[in-house]
Amino acid sequence: MVIVGAGFGGLSAARALANAPVDVLVIDRRNHHLFQPLLYQIATAGLSPADIAAPIRGVLSSQKNASVILGEVTGIDLATREVLGHNAVRDGRVGFDYLILATGARHAYFGHDDWEAYAPGLKTVEDATAIRHRLLVAFEQAEMIDDETERRRLLTIVIIGGGPTGVEMAGAVAELARASLATDFRRIDPRQARIILIEASPRVLATFPESLSTAAAQSLQKLGVEVRLGQAVTQCDAQGVEVGGERIDAATVVWAAGVQASAAASWLGAEADRAGRVKVNADFSLPGQPDVFVIGDTATLTDAAGKVVPGVAPAAKQAGVHVAKVIRARLNGSPAPAPFRYLNWGNLATIGRRAAVADFGWLRLHGTIAWWFWGFVHIFFLIDFRNRLAVMLNWAWSFVTFKRGARLITGNPDRQG
Amino acid sequence: MVIVGAGFGGLSAARALANAPVDVLVIDRRNHHLFQPLLYQIATAGLSPADIAAPIRGVLSSQKNASVILGEVTGIDLATREVLGHNAVRDGRVGFDYLILATGARHAYFGHDDWEAYAPGLKTVEDATAIRHRLLVAFEQAEMIDDETERRRLLTIVIIGGGPTGVEMAGAVAELARASLATDFRRIDPRQARIILIEASPRVLATFPESLSTAAAQSLQKLGVEVRLGQAVTQCDAQGVEVGGERIDAATVVWAAGVQASAAASWLGAEADRAGRVKVNADFSLPGQPDVFVIGDTATLTDAAGKVVPGVAPAAKQAGVHVAKVIRARLNGSPAPAPFRYLNWGNLATIGRRAAVADFGWLRLHGTIAWWFWGFVHIFFLIDFRNRLAVMLNWAWSFVTFKRGARLITGNPDRQG
């Protein structure tokens, strides 16, 4: 069987099939699994790429029935039951009996694809290091320049989208400017940097209870972030953005406003929702194709409890495990598992060094206690023991010293890792 | 005063001028100081770039008389006493009273500059991550391919140059293939990779005593490296290399064979040796220009003991401290310090996980004890406390597990960090 994509969904499916009587072939265009929820820490120079990424081969090294190929999938032939691809995929075709597509999502610009050049999103290691590059270079240029208007532009950072990524990014940028860089320059004061978070809806963290949205916005404001709610961005260009009829000149603009599923729906000729997510059956199989499954951010499903499964890492992992169970049951001839039900352990978002919001349904936390909880959860779920240690060390160090270890300006801003 | 270059020489000069009655302006085209002796560990996925690089601003943050600008210097105007540059250098000109040039060296291809594309060297973070990319991708492609000849080419790694960089690189590549990657593939056995170290002279580590050269070559052979001595490379191309009339097809070729000083000599119109190093006075000043100093890999000097100062990090640091003393003495009107004398604490090179050679003049070590010594020395001299901890952690982890944490294939091989 073939699994395309080694994100949270694909990798958890592969691992859950260890010792099952199948050969599992994992295809990914990257050689590493990435802990995407912490990407914003790479973008803000708190962590190095290797701290939150693990080579897929390494993760599956001891799983005898699993093999990995680095390859770009370009389509699926349902008639011949083959995955089509190029580069590393041998002969351009790989046959499958069972297929799991877990190819994730990219950012969506709602019809303004030209904005991507000015307002990059945050999905890959390269995205994150490109944003880190822009951010750090803007401070360097501000230190050098004499023109006051341009200096203000260089010291203005706009984050578009008030979901967890946008909120966490805004908090981390604020701390980078207010603490880590504070005393490193001589002509500018990085604490004067203007950091603006723009959200089109009336509140940040729309999936959280309203009280926590308010708490998060207040925490951001305490860090000096301007939070602009109910205002949509109408223009992005090389100089900055336009929002609510107002022009904001900004050298660094980050897009955290929307996602679009990968191309799996078009590969399959399958029905999809507006965000491109494939509509799947209750067991994540494709309608009419019981051996083809779509999971994670690439699929949309209303679970057995009547709730829409959210596009978050825990949901993708649970889906991977569920599909593995479905396949195991079929291979063993045993009855299919109970219909999928997403188990929500809680929602978490952090705002800088000491604040976070946590929603467990029965319990809502904000402030320092939520932050500590957030730290433990994120370290616990980092996939590889070594990464956990490295991240803990980095965090402990920057917690004590306010410094950030990964403040490197390297390579070309548009192409790096 | 102005210091161009924040390598070992420039940074040690800047720090040695703390509290001196001068404003010290440090100009570098990179925002980070790089611990170059460990670059090969980035190239072989043992460490992350941020582990061996420290932001220059951070290093000098608390030194009140120092400021830093990110800029590319393009020349020196000795008549107007200005440093010329572009980008971040304001108005393209910065005046100086004292000037220290510490701009380092690049690899030299001995008139075959076209070889650089096929046999990249190892001087910057981008160099190292580009080599890491080639190396890891070659194993991935070998896993995929059916053609046996091409697979052998993909699994052949050639390192040209048997100095410390070449020897350390060959040892690290051997361990990557024989240990870290050993069980990660299904169709190839990375332990079968062919690793060849080519040195034109009759022995590796030519600056060490002959007994240690022999010990180093034996340690490499024990790790499975083919050591070819007394053979010069006569051709590098996309398929591999030609050496001693023999063709060796290799997907990864690394150049560690020679260095060429930076352009400082031509900026100054100064006399230089064949490697482009400026011939300086006994106090590192430029003949006829007592306020202009050239140090580190950019200068050549025979010291007060009659020995040629070598192009190594400790010598550059000592030169930086010496020039700072010369300038302090002039500012204070006190007598000039005693002529420079390079204090050689010893030469070290490591071969893989457990072997090294160390030459202290009065004592020569090889094997495990030299390796431990090497580890302590390198960690001790890493410029920033946090980096020391991170490197120790990474090493401890890979020592115990044989794994390598930074095995990421990211971005474009030619442009990344």
From TrEMBL, chains A, B:
<feature type="domain" description="FAD/NAD(P)-binding">
    <location>
        <begin position="2"/>
        <end position="320"/>
    </location>
</feature>
<dbReference type="InterPro" id="IPR023753">
    <property type="entry name" value="FAD/NAD-binding_dom"/>
</dbReference>
<comment type="similarity">
    <text>Belongs to the NADH dehydrogenase family.</text>
</comment>
<keyword id="KW-0274">FAD</keyword>
<dbReference type="InterPro" id="IPR054585">
    <property type="entry name" value="NDH2-like_C"/>
</dbReference>
<keyword id="KW-1133">Transmembrane helix</keyword>
<keyword id="KW-0812">Transmembrane</keyword>
<feature type="domain" description="External alternative NADH-ubiquinone oxidoreductase-like C-terminal">
    <location>
        <begin position="346"/>
        <end position="399"/>
    </location>
</feature>
<protein>
    <recommendedName>
        <fullName>NADH:ubiquinone reductase (non-electrogenic)</fullName>
        <ecNumber>1.6.5.9</ecNumber>
    </recommendedName>
</protein>
<dbReference type="Pfam" id="PF22366">
    <property type="entry name" value="NDH2_C"/>
</dbReference>
<dbReference type="Pfam" id="PF07992">
    <property type="entry name" value="Pyr_redox_2"/>
</dbReference>
<keyword id="KW-0809">Transit peptide</keyword>
<keyword id="KW-0520">NAD</keyword>
<keyword id="KW-0560">Oxidoreductase</keyword>
<keyword id="KW-0285">Flavoprotein</keyword>
<feature type="transmembrane region" description="Helical">
    <location>
        <begin position="362"/>
        <end position="383"/>
    </location>
</feature>
<dbReference type="InterPro" id="IPR036188">
    <property type="entry name" value="FAD/NAD-bd_sf"/>
</dbReference>
<dbReference type="InterPro" id="IPR045024">
    <property type="entry name" value="NDH-2"/>
</dbReference>
<keyword id="KW-0472">Membrane</keyword>
